[in-house]
Amino acid sequence: MKKKLLFTLCFFPWALLAQSDSLQAEEWVRSATRMLKESKMDSAALFHRQALGQFLLLDLPYRALSSYRSVYAGFANQNKPIILLDSLEAGLAALPRQPKTKKEHAGLCNYLLYIGFVYQIYLSDYQSARYYYERAYKIFQADLHEQDDDIAKFVYLQLGNAYTRLGDYGRAKALLKKAIRYGEVHGLPEMKAALTDVSIVYFEEGSLDSAKAVLDEALALPNSNAQTRMLALDKLASYWLEKDNPEQALLNMEKAAVQLDSIQAKGTSKNYLRRKAEWLRKMGAIYQKMGQHETALDFVQQSIAPRLESQSGERSGRELAKAFLNASSLLLDMGRHSEALQQTQLAFQCLLPDFHPSADENPDPESFYPENTLFEALEQKAVVLEKMGRLDESLACYTLIPVAEAKLRETYQYEASSLMLIAEGRERLERAIGIARLRYDQSGDARYAAQAFYLSEQARGGLLLGSLAASTAAATLPEAQRLRERELRSRMTWYELEIAATRKKGKNNELEVLENTLFLLKQQNAALQDTLRTAYPQYAALRRGVDFATVFDVPLLLQPGRALASFLLNDSLLNIFFFDPSGQMTWRTTPISIDFFFETEGIAAFLGSEDQSPAAKEVFKEHAHSLYRILLGPELAKLGAGITNLVVVPDGALSYLPFEVLLEQPAKVGQGFADLAFLLKTKSVSSLPSVTLAKWQAGKGKHLQAPEPFAGFAPKYGDALASVRGDSIFNPQDSLLERPMWREGLYDLPGAREEVRQIQAITGGDNYSGELATKAAFLENAGRYRNLHLAMHALTDRKNPLLARFVFTQQPGDKEMDYLLFASELGNLSLRADLAVLSACNTGVGRQQRGEGVYNLARSFMLAGVPSVVMSLWRLPDSATREVMVGFYHELNVGKTKAEALRLTKLAYLDAHQDEPQFLHPFFWAGLTLAGW
Fold first, then answer.
1. pLDDT digits 0-9 by tens, 11-50
2. Which of 109, 277, 479, 878 could disulfide-link 306, Cβ–Cβ 3.0 to 4.6 Å?
């Protein structure tokens, strides 16, 4: 007992002293806060320094950190958020050590969330907010194991909403659904409020019915607060506006007004002002839809006043910018063009504080940052200027939009968000090209044609080019960082494939776990990319820069006898940019109707079906010449004699058209295929996804040549795969013509193995046939070869291109991932081949993505760095394909170019089958086409 008493007596005074020192520090914090309220800055700073010193002396660094918030938070209420942020960030920079305890981790997490919140609420800076929210979320995951209710309520929703605002919808949806799930597991029904936020993502993605279903669920929640109900009603009004029912939208906004009154009654003035502004702006949208423009303008202008009041004393903020853009749209509809233009300039000032135009000039693109309202403002300004007849200025605005879009795409982790932005951007670029055409017709100035071509290049293949730029940039990293980036990419690819397959199988119970894991990997990748961009400037510059081709680049890609035709297609107009072998460009536009698409799709269907009926042949001949006249006729009539090689850059429906089957001359009724004037007979033809890709391949995309000449892969398919069939079922007793052994289904292909054997005899190299043709062998060895030849089954998936795959030899015990090589896996490889020949069905077929092109297996090889790919546009007949392929390599071996080699072997095929007219159908020889040159 005496020992215990002695121990207590020895330490008790020191404990009291420590407690006393801590109380003194807290008193200094209160004094500093009081001094600031009295605007005594020097005294406040002195008291706070004393408190900080005391906290640090007592090893309470995280209480020191939180004191910055206690002392300086008042600046937010004084409309001085910048001072508050400077103070908060100074506290962060002064931290002497990392957190040690759960309480300290939670303290740092909350502090970071607060900084993000200030950026979001007071500056509408969602990019900075996202940065701090993500730092907090990382601590929440790694150190708190996502087990803190107060933090969960905030971080899931705020970070999810930041992603939504920045258009990164994949991550937004994943995180908001985690919020709902967390609430269900931890008994926090209030987290169901995230349903409204999920509905916003659905709206942005265009999934209106999904959005409404979620909103109905949100409004049915018991005991939801006024703000949640108001937001749900607001979004429900948006739904009815999209459905062209403004009356129903108005009913919902009247209900929302009741909730708005409730928010006001609670006395949260800033929150009320923001919500009131949103309500007023939506009312303006409703009356605009009703055609009541004066009433609508009155509501929108009213919405600006509370936003100005709730901002930091300056005209700043995304939402205020949107209100100015709403006003501009209304004024434009009312014919008040000058006022509409003024409103767009005010929107820019909200978004770019340093932008203070003396007239109508545009902001400096160097000041752009990831914010979708920036290109909305540029588009609105372009439209206003076009209405005013100031076409050159309108065009200048349009050309800035891709710069703003690229900034935003850099932040995305889910490809779906980028594809949506690209599709929207494509429409803007088409409008810009239309203005360039108008000015070209008015002035004859070739600069407008050059600008239109440059815009057309920006309108295609941005993600493919961006991925290739990222691969090039990765080569500049140290080995450890390069491996880390590759490892993350591989893991994400695996989970994306698993998610796609699981969703297809309807296993929803497994889906959530997979999606959560993928989300975490995406977060890790985003953090890694931020780190790499900061630490390695060369990497950042290479990853960022896609140097789109101009008219001055094209002559460097041409040679004697080679011409290039680039097409840009929309529902009613076709643009043709034609470069002769000297590099001179002509620009032609031609109106098109629904008949154009019927003819294009009809030819593709005829070619792929092997329809031998006389009526179908006559229709084909008529359409094949009609399309030739539209697509190439005027240009080749002038220059055709001097052109031996034609490179086409197709678009839309033209992507599935083998141009070599177009007829240069009209055909007579009953004329056979042997005598038709196919373009093939005078010119070799190849295609490119874009001219920019060819420019990249000729420059930054050049790779070290692989040491070995050839590798052919031709699997053996056994009984385990024989039961899996394609769309067609064949009778073994059918004739060769009726059942010409397609390279589809999953039965064995001995002809493919013979094909590889014969080619190897011509080229040398290695033959991976039968049991040797495994996925593992391909992955291990493909990087060693200049020519890769895959003669096998391929399975496409137009709905989900991730699931397109090659089928290698299945060995005992193999799971699907062991013998199926998926498109996304291919895209992660780094190959040194100059040519990949995909001697399998439908390797050039896939999902058509507006603004990006066709997602197919051939694209995956281009992503892996292969500049030229021979691909198939339909199912391939085994015997004819072998004949064409062997001839192709023979011509290559004697020095012919890839395009000419393919042309000569097809002509040889036609000549060899003169006595078998049924096999002259283009189905047998035109399905293999060359992408690249």
1. 334 333 345 678 888 888 898 888 888 888 888 888 888 8
2. 277
C-alpha closest to that of 796 among 855, 748, 878, 879:
855
- Comparing CA positions, the residue from 491, 466, 485 lying closest to residue 526 is 485
Q: How confident is the model at residue 77 (pLDDT cuts 50, 70, 90)?
A: low
User: What's the token pair of residue 317?
Assistant: 């903020």
What tokens appear for 146 in the block? 């996502």
In angstroms, the CA 37 to CA 45 distance is: 12
Geometric angle at alpha carbon 462, from 457 and 465, rounded to 5°: 100
The Cβ of residue 535 has, within 10 Å, a number of other Cβ atoms equal to 12
- Spatial separation of the C-alpha atoms in residues 752 and 790, rounded to whole Å: 9
CA 436, distance to chain mean position in Å, is 27
Could you tell me which of 881, 895, 885, 891 has the C-alpha nearest to residue 923?
881
Q: If pLDDT is split at 50, 70 and 90, which confidence band does 306 have?
A: low
CA nearest neighbour of 119 among 135, 98, 107, 95: 135
What tokens appear for 732 in the block?
């073994």
Q: Which run of H or of E encompasses 659?
A: none
The Cα 489–Cα 496 span in angstroms is 10
DSSP state letters, 410-453? TT--SHHHHHHHHHHHHHHHHHHHHHHHHHHHHH--HHHHHHHH
Can you tell me whether residue 891 is helix, strand or coil? helix
Q: Is 565 left (phi over 0), alpha (psi -120 to 50) or beta?
A: beta
The 3 state secondary structure assigned to 759-793 is HHHHHCCEEEEECCCCHHHHHHHHHHEEEEEEECE
Q: Residue 690 contacts by C-beta under 8 Å, 6 or more apart in sequence?
A: 457, 460, 461, 464, 465, 549, 649
**Which residues neighbour 81 within 8 Å (Cβ) at sequence distance 6 or greater?**
75, 118, 122, 123, 312
Question: What pLDDT is recorded for position 269?
Answer: 66
Between residues 80 and 423, the one the model is more confident about: 423
- Of residues 499 and 894, the one with the higher pLDDT is 894
Q: How many helices (H) and strands (E) does the chain have?
A: 38, 16
d(CA 647, CA 684): 8
* Among 541, 543, 540, 497, residue whose Cα is nearest residue 518: 497
How many CB atoms within 10 Å of residue 607? 22
Name residue 823's amino acid: A
Which DSSP string corresponds to 83-149?
Answer: HHHHHHHHHHHT--S---SHHHHHHHHHHHHHHHHHHHHHH--HHHHHHHHHHHHHHHHHTTTT--H
Structure tokens at 230: 């108001």
CA separation for the pair 488, 666 (Å, rounded): 56
Q: Is the pTM of this model over 0.70?
A: yes
pLDDT for residue 225 is more than 70:
yes
**With bands split at pLDDT 50, 70 and 90, how would you rate the model's confidence at 309?**
low
Q: Is the pLDDT of residue 723 over 60?
A: no
Question: Is the pLDDT at 313 greater than 50, yes or no?
Answer: no
Residue 266 pLDDT level (bands cut at 50, 70, 90)? low
Average pLDDT, the chain: 87
Closest to 275 (Cα-Cα) out of 219, 333, 323, 227: 227
The SS3 call for residue 685 is: strand
Burial class (CB in 10 A: 0-12, 13-18, 19+), 916: exposed
d(Cα 227, Cα 615) in Å, to the nearest integer?
66
Residues β-bridged to residue 848:
854
Region 830-853 average pLDDT: 91
Which residues have a Cβ under 8 Å from the Cβ of 401 and sit 6 or more positions away?
375, 378, 379, 382, 425, 428, 429
pLDDT at 741 over 50: no
Q: Which two tokens stand for residue 794?
A: 């391929």
Q: Could you tell me whether strands 684-687 and 793-795 are parallel, antiparallel, or unpaired per DSSP bridges?
A: unpaired
